[in-house]
Specification:
Blueprint: H1 4-7, H2 29-36, E1 41-44, H3 50-59, E2 68-74, H4 80-83, H5 95-119, H6 126-139, H7 146-150, H8 179-183, H9 186-210, E3 215-221, H10 232-251, E4 259-266, H11 267-272, H12 278-285, E5 286-288, H13 293-307, H14 335-340, H15 347-360, H16 371-393, H17 400-410, E6 414-415, H18 417-427, H19 433-445, E7 449-453, E8 456-458, E9 474-476
Helix pairs in contact: 5-6, 5-9, 5-10, 15-16, 17-18
Length: about 500
């Protein structure tokens, strides 16, 4: 029997570094909505698969995604302070942020439209020829990156020649400027804004007049990559106006049939934003990524099927259960369900847990994973989940480390409100009762703690409609047990 470690590899946890993602990507309901529905805002907790969907769309051909031409924009290394330079000089003019977003979008759209037409041997209109020459001259690239769109010659050009006019080549002999140059020079800022927004007006009209039957889908990922606590107020303005731009495009009769812009946002960051009709927008336009035991099982089993040797027979109907020796483990729980109960129902948690099982696996007669290996892997998986939560929250909610200390000093998995209150006051001596309730709710809302529902410990990640009740006992999530060094609250407590 060939051993599982010889054919099932360790998997990349991050979608950005998984070069084989396209080969075992699971078609999700969220992807279907992105491609074929009116919805245009994708929300999900960190690790739920936003970037996996983004990467799939980025690499897809138009015929694979309902004939949409995908324009992917990744903001991992985006210089957010530079975005502020595109604000109009009028104080409090929030529409300037909207213009800066539209400017970025239409530069990319015009570039891609020209590329598609040339690839299909379609003749370029006079305006598109003008736009092509301007893009190449201003940005130095026929398809400029988002950084090239920001740092260009626009701040040096004294006057733009509009469509239909001959381009003054001498205007482009000037060099590019750095962010620091523009940040320190009001005149350069004014020139940059004026030129960028003039070019936006030209490009938007040209796009509408030349797009024809083409459909474009702009997807924006890692908008939260540099979400630092000291910049939250400014970033909130940037994101709120991005959302407004996307909403305006979705209802613009001259655009909505040819363009949809979809920002991929973390749910917790969206929750912090404050703007009119937020709840209505959520109801009408948001796609929320959610997983359950079955969909996560299918997700990982796609990887198993890809690498399974052709001569190895698995019970395909059992999916991931088929790669374990035993059909049931502790308390009669199937192995895969044992894993999901120690996760936040995110693909990242599942992939990490299986990687940890692989690390502790030793070859055996069956060639599959054992029950002992499933249990042993829980220790490192617990550390990984803890680190993920810290990475998720440490910037905008630095109190998270202190709250973990509270749970650790309680020492037991299950506790009542009074125990939490006592340890909390020791960790946060200057806190008010309001702070305590707020932080307890934070832990509950993020599935770090849960409560019993119909005799079973549940968390919002597994039961989205669960409501907090401080009169009832709480339990720290099973995935954090080993990292926080917690023990049973009483002898014989059900582990699951």
């Amino acid at each position: 029997m060939i051993d599982i470690k010889d054919w099932l590899p360790e998997f990349e946890v991050s979608a950005e570094t998984d070069n084989e993602l396209q080969e075992y990507f699971l078609q999700t309901p969220e992807l279907e909505k992105i491609i074929n529905s009116k919805y245009w805002l994708l929300l999900g907790r960190k690790g739920t698969g936003k970037t996996a969907i983004y990467k799939y769309l980025e690499k897809s051909e138009a015929n694979e995604v309902n004939n949409n031409i995908v324009v992917s924009l990744n903001f991992k290394d985006y210089p957010w302070p530079a975005h502020k330079l595109y604000k109009e000089s009028i104080a409090g003019e929030l529409s300037a942020y909207q213009k800066s977003w539209r400017f970025l979008f239409f530069v990319k759209l015009i570039s891609r439209l020209i590329e598609i037409k040339e690839k299909n041997s379609e003749p370029l209109s006079k305006d598109l020829k003008w736009a092509k020459k301007y893009i190449d001259k201003v940005f130095g690239n026929p398809d400029p990156t988002i950084l090239e769109v920001l740092f260009s010659k626009l701040a040096r050009i004294k006057k733009l020649a509009g469509p239909g006019l001959d381009i003054d080549e001498t205007s482009f002999s000037v060099g590019e400027v750095s962010f620091d140059d523009v940040a320190d020079d009001k005149e350069l800022q004014n020139t940059l804004r004026s030129n960028a927004f003039s070019l936006l007006n030209y490009f938007e009209v040209i796009f509408k007049n030349n797009v024809g039957s083409h459909k474009f889908l702009i997807v924006l990922d890692q908008l939260d990559e540099n979400w630092l606590s000291g910049e939250i107020e400014e970033y909130s303005k940037v994101l709120i106006n991005l959302i407004n731009v996307c909403r305006n495009i979705s209802i613009d009769e001259s655009l909505k049939n040819n363009l949809k812009v979809i920002p991929f946002l973390r749910t917790d960051i969206y929750d912090t934003l404050r703007f009119n009709d937020k709840n209505k927008l959520y109801q009408d336009s948001a796609i929320v990524i959610s997983w359950n035991n079955d969909s996560l099982d299918s997700m990982f089993f796609e990887r198993v099927k890809k690498y399974k040797p052709s001569n190895l027979i698995l019970q395909l109907d059992k999916k991931c259960e088929s790669i374990f020796e035993a059909s049931f483990v502790r308390q009669g729980t199937p192995p895969f369900k044992y894993i999901t109960r120690r996760s936040f129902f995110r693909p990242r948690d599942i992939i990490t847990y299986f990687n940890n099982i692989r690390k502790v696996h030793q070859p055996n007669k069956s060639g599959f994973y054992t029950t002992k290996e499933l249990y042993d892997a829980a220790v490192e998986a617990s550390v990984s989940v803890y680190n993920e939560i810290m990475d998720e929250w440490s910037n905008q909610f630095p109190e998270i480390e202190g709250l973990f200390s509270v749970l650790q000093t309680i020492q037991v998995e299950t506790f009542v409100f009074e125990e939490f209150e006592k340890k909390y006051k020791g960790e946060f001596p200057k806190s008010t009762d309001g702070d305590l309730r707020k932080h307890l709710s934070f832990l509950f809302d993020n599935s770090i703690i849960g409560q019993k529902k119909q005799g079973r410990w549940e968390y919002l990640s597994s039961l989205p409609n669960l409501k907090i009740n401080i009169e009832k006992p709480f339990r720290t999530h099973q995935s954090l047990k080993y990292r926080l060094q917690l023990v049973e609250s009483r002898p014989g407590q059900n582990d699951d």
